[in-house]
Amino acid sequence: MRGRRRRSVGSERLREALVGYGFIALPMAAFLVLFIYPMVYAFYISYFDWGILGKIEKVGFDHYRGLYDDFTFRKAVKNTLRYTAVVVPSQMALGLLMAVIVNQAIRGRTFFRAAFYFPSLTSSAAITAIAMYILASDGLLNSILHTNRAWFAESDTALESIMALNIWTTSGTMMLFYLAALQSISTDVYEAAAIDGAKTWRTFWRITFPLLKPAHYFVAVISVIGSLKIFDQAFFVSGGGGGPNYSTTTVMLQLYNTAIKDYNFGLAAAMGVVLFVFIFALTLIQRQLFGKSEVA
Amino acid sequence: MASDQRASPAIAIPEQLAADQPLAFGQEPPSGIPGRERAEIVSRTIVYIALIGVSLLFLVPFIWSVSTSLKTLPETAYFDLLPDNPSLRAYRRALSEFNFARYFLNSVFLSTVVTLFNLALSSLGGYAFARLRFPGREALFFLVLGTMMIPDQLRLVPIFQMLIDTPVTHSNLIGTYQGYFAINLVGAATLFLMRQYFLTIPKDFEEAAKLDAAGYFKTFFRVMLPLAGPALAAVAILTFQGTWNDFFWPLIIFLGNSDLYPLPVGIFQFKDTYETQWPELMAGSVISILPIALLYVFFQRYFVAGIASAGVKG
Q1: Could you give the 3-state DSSP secondary structure of residue A48?
Q2: Which of B12, B24, B154 is nearest residue A39 as measured by Cβ atoms?
Q3: SS3 sequence, A114-132?
Q4: Could you tell me if B174 lies within 8 Å of chain A, comparing CB atoms?
Q5: What span, in angstroms and rounded, lies between the C-alpha atoms of B133 and A135?
Q6: Which residue of A69, A183, A239, B213 is most buried, as measured by CB atoms within 10 A?
Q7: Distance to chain A for B4, nearest Cα, Å
Q8: Model-level pTM?
Q9: Nearest CA in chain A to B238
Q10: What residues of chain A lie within 8 A of the CB of B54, using their CB?
Q11: Cα(B202)–Cα(B221) distance, integer angstroms
């Protein structure tokens, strides 16, 4: 019997370490092959003209230079940034508002929380299908507004409609993050404010809002990362084409079409790298703006 | 990066879950000041009306889609909320003629298998990173957390290239289930969730197992894993929902092979082909939404914990 024999501390340590490596072997292999290696590989591929059959020739930074002058890519960057600039603040404001509401001691709190969160639960494809139905030219929205617009099919409303759709569907998730943060604020703070006779509105802006700083940072990062990779809805409403007139061409959609439709892997990899650097930089900037004092 | 995550407020939830406490939402406000009841009643009423209005705004599109799915196509021209002759005809047509039964089964299959892989790998890894001591543990764990910073945009091309021509075996996994499983084996968020949970389990359990001469594997499978039930449930729900709703990777991997499509890609394909067959399209959407809605109704608190840990992805 192994258990009865007394082992030395050293061999016990060694055994524990070996078992530890054994336990992490499979997950670590998966992380290496599915995340770490692809990241390095993406940089490598972007150095080449690279097609469906593999490497063609080395082009250095040409893909990156080409992207700068590429009309469609510039349009895609512009759309993606415009989308992010509208969606992030709207999601944060709406998420916070809903969190504050369902954090009150009101009847039916669970129902309201579930109602606000419900769109976040659903698949992007299903919800985009529903939105296309409601926003169709003979759809419900037009009948309410007495208008006759094909919201997703006209170039001056297509991107805005996707913005509205995603603000609606994902602010429920932001609400949950804010709710978790609101719960962690001690009630003493509010009691002290009440004793001081502070009004609700004032309490919120002077006390609650600043105390939520780590949550603002966290929600902003999540929302920015999510917005910069907007793809599903743009692909769905334009059938993958990014139209009409490039109005729904996002960076991710352009990347997909370059890789999967044109098999121009080198150029697509370069787009991925640009977007990655962009996200990374923005995350750092946001950390400077919101998160500095909280970073342990 | 790791420090930000610790700073995030959402992390508290897995621990609450660990303690198996009901997640407490909302707190009682300080009691009202006498003489203000009237004003309170008025303001309460206003708040409730606003709340119900906003909830309707959130729910009406879904109610509308259910209603449409019970109509016939000519009936959709009238904007009545209740169908004249509600029938399941659109569901029957969607399921049989338009292949949604197949899409549904594909979704069930993909989500189940991916969930099982994630449960296995994240609990193994999570346990080792939480409880076993070995050189390089912190560095490797940091590496795992770092993978959260690698976005799908960057992975698309290399992953696609690796699936066209897999390393070592040189097979083509595009258009196969295996290709989808291969790239969804494990995620940092689920491993992180498991590790955090294992950290909260008192060491006494392992020491008791040791006294009983149980080896590491027996301790893990017989003692620790059963204790980690709530975390396993959160990982399962998070992964199942994520896979069920995934549009991007199935679109790439099953491209053109519609027998393998899960529901989201099936819905897209249907919309792209048949344009305005609204009742069937809404039926397909309801089929895709309903299972997750039911999961939410029954396992609400695990969703909250899962969301919190998914949020760690920042």
Answers
A1: strand
A2: B154
A3: HHHHHHHHCCHHHHHHHHH
A4: no
A5: 57
A6: A183
A7: 6
A8: 0.85
A9: A121
A10: 98, 116
A11: 16
Residues β-bridged to residue A55: A50
Amino acid B294 reads L
Tokens of A139: 């759809």
The residue ranking higher by pLDDT, A162 or B307, is A162
Half-sphere exposure of A71 (CA within 13 A, CB side): 3
| β pairing state of A48-51 and A54-58 | antiparallel
Ordered structural domains, chain B, with CATH = 90-311 (1.10.3720.10)
CB contact under 8 A, A27 and B152: no
Closest to B277 in 3D by CA, of B61, B74, B59: B74
Rounded Cα–Cα distance for residues A233 and B240 (Å)? 21
Compute φ and ψ for B66, nearest 5 degrees: -65, -45
Output the average pLDDT for chain B.
81
- Give the tens place of pLDDT for each residue, A245-271: 888 999 999 999 999 988 999 999 999
Who's near A296: CB < 8 A, 6+ residues apart? B3, B6, B7
Among A245-259, B13-27, B128-142, B169-183, the range scoring the smallest mean pLDDT is B13-27
Q: Are A149 and A100 in contact (CB under 8 A)?
A: no
Domain boundaries, chain A: 9-45, 64-294
- Cβ-proximal residues to B223 (8 Å cutoff; 6+ apart), any chain: B205, B206, B208, B209, B214
Find residues 217-246 of chain B whose CB sits inside 8 Å of chain A.
217, 220, 241, 244-245
3-state helix, strand, coil in chain B (%, to 5): 75, 0, 25
Q: Which segments within chain A are labelled E, that is strand?
A: 48-51, 54-58
Q: Which two tokens stand for residue A31?
A: 């992380």
Q: Residues 60 to 99 of B: which have CB under 8 A from any A CB?
A: 61-62, 64-65, 68, 77, 79
pLDDT digits (tens, 9 = 90+) for B11-20: 344 444 444 4
Q: Which residues of chain A, if any, have pLDDT below 70?
A: 1-7, 197-198, 290-296
Closest C-alpha to B67, from B299, B287, B286: B286
- 3-class SS at A6? coil
Q: Which single residue is written with the structure tokens 């994902």? A: A170
Ramachandran angles phi, psi of B88, nearest 5°: -95, 20
Q: Which fold has domain A64-294?
A: MetI-like fold (1.10.3720)
Residue A174, amino acid: M
